[in-house]
Structures are given as structure tokens and as C-alpha cells.
């Protein structure tokens, strides 16, 4: 059941999606899946050249519409902008890009995690979560949280994923658009997961999935039952 | 795949499980499911009389071995003690029961949540989570977190559940025992979910499930994929 019972939203044919941090494993995997679904993607990276190299690779792998640009250009050219950058530098990057992101739907996919010998753990974020930090910085954008718990390894492949994507946000039109975007990935279902104030635990849950992966030698994900 | 790859653990035939707060919806539902599986349960409540009334009801519904007692007696008579009490008073109750709980496996099932017009949200806990609070108070017990995300409505019924139970803890023997206990519930699978320090987000995720239930008119739960 997608679209929150209001009928499934669909992704507009002319939608352009930027993936900032698209040369990292998670961003690359998401861009690959969107391109495979025929969604127009512009990979963003620190340098346009690096983004264009990965975009060329993904075009070859998927035959889909993928371009590459520096982060500012990618953000400016797209309607929906996924932020898939490392937690270190998250706030700085968003402050820098705030003008380019004004008026757009920004999807924060960042998990603030620390790592030590015992594995992964959630970091405290003054604003509550990475998504809420983005919302605090990007006051002219509509911020949504999503794609936190999807395995990068499984994304950068062709097999259908067997996972749901929890989509968090306070703006229904934006969360439904992002649910529809998640639905374009083979085997994935976008499920509304609550308001921004409940984003922290969805980001942090990735630490548990990393523990599960280690124990069970898996690439675990989350399915919501009874929905 | 249960038992963390070390072979599925089984619940010892003579295991006695206390469910403190067993007259509330979540505790009653868990006790009902364990009794239906033939696990010996003692319901605990503030007063023995109230616990015995619910126990009699569950004996009639399940034909299983359910008794009732005050919380201290229930805790003292059992090997595994589930704490399914309201968050208010959680710490006070555990301090009071600490001597009776020494040497036992204590399974904290409590979700520290607040509610307002916008729904549920996670409360801040000084120790990090209810489970870590229990571990801080019960220094002579082995504390595990589990059963946070299971719908009380679905528990207090007979249909198989379609959900996993994330089991959190730092003691492998205890987490495997609690996984095995979860496995006794029809349709449920106990999955190791990480160390105690990663309990907060599993407790808090219940706020998201409440949001999902409201949006989709469901009794949602969690499945872990690829495990």
C-alpha cells in the first residue's frame, strides 16, 4: 500500500533528481537504481569531473539518463535533491548550498553514526537528527528524510531489493513524492514513517542493521508488516 | 534464521517467565502468546488479585500454564522476567524489585514515549534508553531489551503475527534465550538487534509505528529483510 491511502502518487515524467554525494557507495547505488527506473538523475560531487566519471559508468550499466555535475550545479538543476554525504561536513555543505536548494524538496539520507571496536552507534545531534539539522539550515526548502536503512551493496546491483523505505516529513505533498520516488526502485516500497521529529531513530536504526549484518552475514533492511 | 547462526536456541521446558505489568495490554498480550505456546508464565501486577483475574482469563483462552501474583512474587519465582510497565514509574519499580531480580535475565520491553496532538514522539532518557536505565539500576541482573515494536492488539489474539522481535543485549547467552522465547510466539522471529547502547532507537521506533498505524489504519510491525 503506497501513497498513504490517498492513491499512489507517481513521479512526474520530467522530474529531475540530484544525488549529492553521488560518488559515495550509497549515493551511487541510489542514482543507479533511479537511472535504471528511467528517472532523470544528476550526480553531484565536490568536483564535476568525478561526478561525470561515475555518471558515465552508471549510464553504461543502466542505459538510463544520468548526468554529473558539481554539487551546486546539480542542486540548482533539479527539483528533488537527495543529500547522501558523510555526516562530517553535513551542516557545512548544506549551509553552502542553501541558496541553490531554496524552493526544492531536499531528501536527507544521512545517518549520524560513530564506529568503534564494538561496531556502530548513533551520534547525538543537537537538532535531534540529521534531517532536523537540514530543516533548521534549509529554511527555504521542504526537507524530508528517507533512504536511511537501504544497503549500499544491494543498491549498487540489479537484483530487486526486498525492503521498505521509511519517508519522514511534515509536508504531505513532499513525503508522497518521495514515497513515489522510492517506489520506482525495483522491490522497494515507500512508506510514510512519521514526522521530522521522529527521524532520529530511523537514522540511528542503521547502527542496529550494521550489528545485524555482522552477526548474520547479511545486508539487512526493514520491512513494515501489516501495511 | 534464529539464534545468530550458532544453531537455534530452545526454551528450556522448565523455564518460568514473569510478565511484570501483565495486566496492561502489551503485557497481557505477551503472556497470552507465551501461555498459548506452553511456556509457564506468571503474570505480575501491583496486586496479586488483579494479576490472578487476568491469569484466569488467559488460562481459559489458551489452556496454557498461567498464574498471577504481585510483582515481587512473580519476579522472585521466575528465571526470566519481562518488564512491561508504563514508562512513568519504570525506574522506581526496578529499584524496588532489584533484590528479587538479582541473578535473573530481565527483559525490558518499555518504550519511553510522549504523546500530543501530532502523535507519539520519543522521550529523552538520561541513561540513553529504558533498557540502559534498567541495566544501570539492576547491576546484579542480566538486562536485555526486546518486544518493543509488537502490536498489543495483534498479541492479544490468536492469528499468527508477521513480525520480528529485535533483541538487544551485551550477553550472548541471554540474548539467545530471549530470541528463543520470541520464537515461541506463532509467526514471530527473534533477531539479534545489537548491543544495549543501540536500544534507544528500537524503543523510539514505536513512535514511528504509531504514526504508520494512524496513516495506514494498520497494526504495523517490523520485519528484517535478508536475515
What would your notes on this structure say?
2 copies of one chain form a homodimer. With 227 residues, chain A is an alpha/beta fold. Chain A has one domain (16-216): NAD(P)-binding Rossmann-like Domain (Rossmann fold, 3-Layer(aba) Sandwich), CATH 3.40.50.720. Helices cover 38% and strands 24% of the residues of chain A. Chain A has 8 helices and 11 strands. Chain A has a 6-stranded parallel beta sheet with strand order 3-2-1-4-5-8. In chain A, helix 1 (25-36) packs across helix 2 (48-62). The longest helix of chain A has 17 residues, at 200-216. Chains A and B meet through strand 7, strand 9, strand 10, helix 8 and strand 11 of A and strand 7, strand 9, strand 10, helix 8 and strand 11 of B. Strand 11 (221-225) of chain A pairs antiparallel with strand 11 of chain B.
List segments of chain A where confidence is low: pLDDT < 50 over at least 5 consecutive residues: 1-6
Q: How is the main sheet of chain A built?
A: 6 strands, parallel
Q: Helicity of chain A, in percent?
A: 25-40%
- On the 0-100 scale, what is the average pLDDT of chain A? 95
Instruction: Describe the global form of chain A.
Output: globular
The total count of strands of chain A amounts to: 11
Number of helices of chain A: 8
Provide the CATH topology of chain A.
Answer: Rossmann fold
Question: Which oligomeric form is depicted?
Answer: homodimer
Our estimate of the beta-strand percent of chain A is 15-25%
The CATH homology group name of chain A: NAD(P)-binding Rossmann-like Domain
* Chain pair forming the biggest interface: A-B, 44 and 45 residues
What radius of gyration of chain A results from the CA coordinates? 16 Å
